């Protein structure tokens, strides 16, 4: 397989590792949208096949890591042709001091993980009161 084909395959599948033989598992990076609101950063990650109890969210130092484990059904028979790729999801993000790590909230619905990462109070815009007549 040419280097160009390997790069294209990696980009198309979101696979972290090189493509493997049929039936072997890979680790994928979930597709993610990040939206900034006035009060928070909202991160939405697509993890098809992952249930609420199969997600782990860790914050270590300045790194937020998402891990989604896919429940697997046993295949019957010998695979002849395989396009469906099996594997878990892993993605990490660097957090700045502008967010409140202690108040991160998470919700999982139909394979979509939504994290709400509140901004730290010191970074939120505030209105200054003017005193006087």
What does this structure look like?
- This protein is mostly beta strands and about 130 residues long.
- The protein has 1 helix and 8 strands.
- The protein has a domain at about 40-70 and about 80-125: Immunoglobulin-like (Sandwich), CATH 2.60.40.790.
- The protein has one helix at about 5-15; strands spanning about 25-30, 30-35, 40-45, 55-60, 65-70, 85-95, 105-110, 110-120.
- The strands form 2 sheets. It has a 4-stranded mixed sheet, with no helix packed on it. A 4-stranded antiparallel sheet has the order 2-3-8-7, with no helix packed on it.
- It is elongated and about 85 Å long.
- Mean pLDDT is about 80; it is low at about 1-15 and about 15-20.
Short characterization:
By secondary structure, the chain is mainly β.
What descriptive keywords fit this protein?
36% strand, 133 residues, Immunoglobulin-like, disordered N terminus, mainly beta, four-stranded antiparallel β-sheet
Map the helices and strands.
Blueprint: H1 3-13, E1 26-28, E2 31-36, E3 40-46, E4 55-60, E5 63-68, E6 87-94, E7 105-109, E8 112-118
Parallel strand pairs: 1-6
Antiparallel strand pairs: 2-3, 3-8, 4-5, 5-6, 7-8
> Could you tell me how far the N terminus lies from the C terminus, measured between alpha carbons in angstroms?
77 Å
Order of helices and strands: HEEEEEEEE
Count of individual beta strands: 8
* CATH fold-type name of the domain at 40-72 and 82-123: Immunoglobulin-like
| Percent of sequence in beta strands | 35-45%
- Helices, by number, come to 1
Q: Provide the CATH top-level class of the domain at 40-72 and 82-123.
A: Mainly Beta
Q: Could you estimate the helical fraction of the residues in percent? A: under 10%
Overall shape? elongated
Gyration radius over CA:
20 Å
Low-confidence stretches: 1-13, 15-20
* Structural class by sheet pairing and helices: mainly beta
Most strands sheet: 4 strands, mixed
Just name the CATH architecture of the domain at 40-72 and 82-123: Sandwich
The residue-averaged pLDDT reads 82
What oligomeric state best describes the polypeptide chains here? single chain
User: Taking strands numbered 1, 2, ... along the chain, how are they ordered across the largest sheet?
Assistant: 1-6-5-4
């Amino acid at each position: 397989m040419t280097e160009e084909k390997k790069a294209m395959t990696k980009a198309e599948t979101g696979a972290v590792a090189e493509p493997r033989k049929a039936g072997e598992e890979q680790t994928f990076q979930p597709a993610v949208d990040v939206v900034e609101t006035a009060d928070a950063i909202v991160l939405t990650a697509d993890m098809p096949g992952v249930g609420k109890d199969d997600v782990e969210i860790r914050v270590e130092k300045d790194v937020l890591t998402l891990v989604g484990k896919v429940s697997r059904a046993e295949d019957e028979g010998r695979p002849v042709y395989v396009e469906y790729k099996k594997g878990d999801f892993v993605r990490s993000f660097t957090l700045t001091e502008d967010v409140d790590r202690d108040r991160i909230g998470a919700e999982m619905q139909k394979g979509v993980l939504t994290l709400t990462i509140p901004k730290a109070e010191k970074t939120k815009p505030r209105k200054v009161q003017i005193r006087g007549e």
